Amino acid sequence: MSKRRFSSGWTALHIYGAAFLIFLYAPLALITVYSFNSNALNMAVWTGFTFDWYRTLFGMQPAGAAFDAAFTENPDRIFGVLRNSLIVALSASAISTVIGTATALATARYDFVGKRIYQALLFMPMIMPDIVLGIALLIFFVGVGFKLSLATIIIGHCTFLSSYVYIIVAARLAGMDNTLEVASADLGAGPVTTFRRVTLPLIMPGVIGGFLLAFIISLDDVVITYFIAGVDTQTLPLFILAMVRRGIRPQINALAVLLIMFSFVVASAGLYFRSRRN
Amino acid sequence: MRQVSEQEVLRVDGARKSFRTPESGVVTPLDGITLSIRNNEFLTLLGPSGCGKTTLLKTIAGFEELDEGEIFLEGRAMSAVPAHRRPFNTVFQNYALFPHMTVAGNVGYGLQVAGVKRAEETARVTDVLRLVGLSGLERRKPAQLSGGQQQRVALARALINRPRVLLLDESLSALDRKLRQSMQIELKNLQNTVGITFIFVTHDQEEALTMSDRIAVMDKGRILQLGTPAEIYDTPKNRFVAGFIGTSNIFSGTLAKDGGTSRVDIEGGPAIAVTADGFASGDKVDVMLRPEHFALASGRTGAGGSLDAVIENIVFVGTDLHLHGRLANGLPVVALERHARGAGALSLAPGQTVTLHYQATAPHLMKSQAA
């Protein structure tokens, strides 16, 4: 086996692999670098290192003259928007986790008329274009006289997040041995004890994984939220979108970096829980 | 030593269950089963797959409901009692150990659920693990155990609740032959120690013969015969039981009684001399001859008969030689010869015609099922 036979293909693969990673991560790296660039007017030109953009983001007065007076966003608004986003993401993913898990348990354990159709319908919110779902939800809320608010965002997010949780937990349940629940009953445990001591611990990695995925999807959803958020409620992605419309400001870079770090932590936690119980 | 008393502990009365499958219409795993199980006995439900033995076990455990009939524990009807309130425990075919709990957690589960105090639980877990020979493995997870060890954990987990009846669902079939044989002996010893009624489900007739006090042979949702291993082996009720237990030669024919002697005329073949109490001349019957009933030498005393066969194959299994041959009419026949070192084996060869002698008391008559 000569090394030469492989060398050209091998090099091409290396280049391809490197290009792939650069393509994925260069924009993120660039944003991170920009977020520390003190040049307020042209972020592509490096003038010096600064924490100013992070400081203004959190409402602290910047030390230097670098602070752009044109930056008019109120830091209190950012925190309010962030709070909205966290409320929506936490509530929607918590509710979806309960609904999705219960649905997965029902379809895995029981046979009922129309089960196949029901299971197929559970995939619909995932494959339906966001824009259609957003409009449909808007029409529905307006139709039944719901005032658009954080609550409508939460309900709207639940409609499709439940599907994600369902799929992840159902996959976990499919890999679980049914006789374990029978064995638990055989040893004297009632249905509640069996669920608490046997079923739940065994599907927990799926439940946590589903929750975290739902949380992340909810946190950065723009399209659906755009339709069902009221005029006076805003989430972080909508806020960023609005900010970008008036030009990309350095503060957005700082905000993006913080979001990347947050997502990274959540995703790591999800992977950790998935691997731990297997 | 364990005492099997005549006292009934469990009674299955007219159990019937059927269900519809999408492929093959209605399946009836239990077709009117009545069975009385005695205190402390080792009862085996034996039959081919699909005969209903596992379904019967599941209905006793309470995992499945009966369509008709009732199960009584010491006279108390069980149908309204859910599985988790029945004083039975099961050793599952795949053991069904909780993968997220340690050995001690698995074994102690039944006690925790019952609200037994921590100190007592620990003591009893230690005791029962010693009983099954697993002391020192308390902290292990099931995945870190061998198949034999997992089986013992499953057994310990089922025994710790001191059930009235222990149900074993093909619990040894996943083990290799050697381990299975040593577990068979251990299970028997264990039953002698703990004194619990065992109901054991298996499709392995050898296992059934070695372990049971009584065997219930099942087919198509019915119990064909219930008896001790010797009864089942020596006097099977019909062709199915005879064929399922051990190796046998079964010939169909018509009984002819002629004065003091009786014989069965095999269609297109020889006649077999039999003793035929309880049968009438002209009855269609099946005759069973076990391979060990044949002898190459006619030295035995008493009335008997013989069959001529052409040897096709000789299988050496250590203690014995299995002679596979054919009668003149083409019917296959198996005979068994003790292996005498050097002597017998050398004089036999395929293609050779031998005379197989048997005593008149050896053939076992069964009513023909063909009708």
From TrEMBL, chain A:
This is ABC transporter permease. The lineage of its organism: Bacteria, Pseudomonadati, Pseudomonadota, Alphaproteobacteria, Hyphomicrobiales.
From TrEMBL, chain B:
The lineage of its organism: Bacteria, Pseudomonadati, Pseudomonadota, Alphaproteobacteria, Hyphomicrobiales. Keywords: ATP-binding, Nucleotide-binding. The keyword ATP-binding applies. It comes from Taklimakanibacter albus. It comes from the Bacteria. This is ABC transporter ATP-binding protein.
